[in-house]
């Protein structure tokens, strides 16, 4: 069976023990004791009997951090033994430090019990001798007990309370810093997602038109058709490049002097439809949204923009319908386009547009659906119009 070894004493505790032992030896050598030889309590007079309690108490100092309760119990026995000798002041002083350390480093429940016990001993040491002897000098016994036992225990409790409060404050500061870092990471992630949605919605429409018309220009050997396609390609290239430059300028300018572009509103949906018609889509618009909050306007505009871009890339020839209407406290956005195999050129898709539309609806507490409905592909979003429901 392995024997449990106590941890090595702290260096500071070793210095206390050595200093207390050497000080006590010096007091014994010069004959400076705490009581005279004719004191009634002195059972073992002489210069050397106090050295045994002195040595034991010095050993207790080595255990003041590693085994505070053991040190207090043994130290209490040693200081009691010191009472039947002529006494040594160093023994008493080291015992007060052992009492202090037992409260400071010992278990919390033990520290509370020591407080109560030393307090009761102080009261008893004051009341009982005075009741027995009826002389004012008897009160000094309670004073001595209070100084030797209760005072160091109370001091240890005060220091422990401040130490625990400081540790709790440190833990709260660490937790606050951790929460702040978590919020920062979440904010950066949300901002990156927002910028990704904005970049995709602003540029994808122009790039899709460029891809469709460049494919048509390459596949058709008709000069007039190629000229029209190149005209559309140039217009979309210029517009897309301008939007890209504006976005990059906002990202690079950290001074805050650059004014951001006004957020798109539902009044701009008609311009989106006109642009889609210029790119070859047959689009009809039914818009009766009325007054809606700004976040809802931006989300609805971007959803219509992306839905028209997807129709340009993937829809069969036919009519595309865009409908905006208020129903039961929500703005209903619906874009339908012909669905099925496409014979002509088409631009590739990555699925990022659907993800962005779904995120925009979710940030407002709304719903989003996209999928085939018979011969149509329908994109539908229901965006709440109540400001309190917005989470963006």
Count the domains: 2
Average the pLDDT over all residues and give the rounded result: 82
- Class per helix and strand makeup: alpha+beta
Task: Name the shape in a single word.
Answer: rod-shaped
What is the radius of gyration computed over CA atoms, rounded to a whole number of angstroms?
Answer: 44 Å
Give the termini distance in whole angstroms.
65 Å
DSSP strand tally: 5
Strand order in space, largest sheet: 1-2-3-5-4
Largest sheet: 5 strands, mixed
Low-confidence stretches: 256-260, 388-392
Q: Approximately what portion of the residues adopt beta-strand conformation? A: 5-15%
Order of helices and strands: HHHHHHHHEHEEHEE
Helix percent band: 55-70%
Q: Please give the count of helices.
A: 10
Describe the structure.
With 392 residues, this protein is of the alpha+beta class. It folds into 2 domains: 11-174, no CATH class; 266-392, 2-Layer Sandwich (Heat Shock Protein 90), CATH 3.30.565. The chain is built from 10 helices and 5 strands. Strands 1-2-3-5-4 form a 5-stranded mixed beta sheet. α9 links the parallel β1 and β2 (319-327). The radius of gyration is 44 Å and the shape is rod-shaped. The two termini are 65 Å apart. The relative contact order is 0.06. The model is unreliable at 256-260 and 388-392 (pLDDT under 50).
Question: Which secondary structure elements does this structure contain, and how are they paired or packed?
Answer:
Layout: H1 11-29, H2 51-61, H3 68-82, H4 89-105, H5 108-133, H6 139-219, H7 223-252, H8 269-278, E1 282-288, H9 294-314, E2 319-327, E3 330-338, H10 352-363, E4 367-373, E5 376-384
Parallel strand pairs: 1-2
Antiparallel strand pairs: 2-3, 3-5, 4-5
């Amino acid at each position: 069976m392995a024997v449990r070894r106590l941890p090595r004493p702290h260096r500071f505790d070793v210095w206390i023990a050595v200093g207390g032992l050497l000080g006590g030896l010096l007091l014994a050598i010069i004959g400076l004791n705490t009581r005279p030889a004719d004191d009634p309590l002195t059972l073992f007079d002489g210069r050397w009997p106090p050295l045994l309690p002195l040595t034991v108490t010095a050993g207790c100092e080595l255990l003041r951090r590693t085994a505070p309760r053991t040190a207090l119990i043994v130290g209490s026995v040693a200081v009691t033994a010191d009472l039947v000798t002529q006494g040594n002041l160093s023994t008493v002083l080291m015992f007060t430090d052992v009492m202090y350390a037992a409260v400071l480093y010992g278990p919390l429940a033990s520290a509370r019990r020591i407080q109560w016990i030393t307090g009761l001993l102080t009261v008893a040491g004051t009341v009982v001798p005075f009741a027995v002897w009826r002389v004012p000098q008897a009160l000094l016994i309670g004073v001595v007990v209070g100084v030797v036992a209760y005072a160091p225990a109370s001091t240890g409790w005060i220091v422990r309370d401040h130490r625990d409060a400081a540790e709790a404050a440190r833990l709260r500061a660490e937790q606050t810093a951790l929460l702040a870092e978590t919020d920062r990471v979440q904010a950066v992630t949300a901002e990156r997602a927002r910028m990704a949605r904005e970049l995709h919605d602003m540029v994808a429409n122009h790039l899709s038109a460029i891809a469709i018309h460049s494919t048509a220009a390459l596949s058709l050997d008709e000069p007039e058709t190629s000229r029209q396609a190149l005209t559309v390609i140039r217009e979309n290239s210029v517009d897309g490049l301008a939007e890209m430059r504006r976005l990059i300028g906002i990202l690079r300018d950290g001074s805050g002097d650059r004014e951001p572009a006004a957020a798109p509103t539902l009044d701009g949906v008609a311009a989106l439809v006109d642009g889609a018609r210029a790119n070859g889509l047959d689009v009809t618009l039914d818009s009766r949204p009325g007054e809606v909050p700004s976040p809802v306007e931006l989300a609805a505009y971007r959803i219509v923009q992306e839905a028209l871009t997807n129709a340009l890339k993937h829809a069969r020839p036919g009519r595309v319908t865009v409908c905006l209407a208020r129903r039961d406290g929500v703005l209903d956005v619906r874009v339908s386009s012909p669905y099925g195999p496409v014979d002509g050129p088409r631009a590739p898709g990555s699925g990022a547009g659907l993800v962005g539309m779904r995120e925009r609806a979710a940030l407002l507490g709304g719903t989003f659906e996209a999928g085939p409905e018979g011969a149509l592909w329908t994109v539908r979003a229901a965006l709440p119009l109540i400001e309190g429901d917005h989470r963006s």
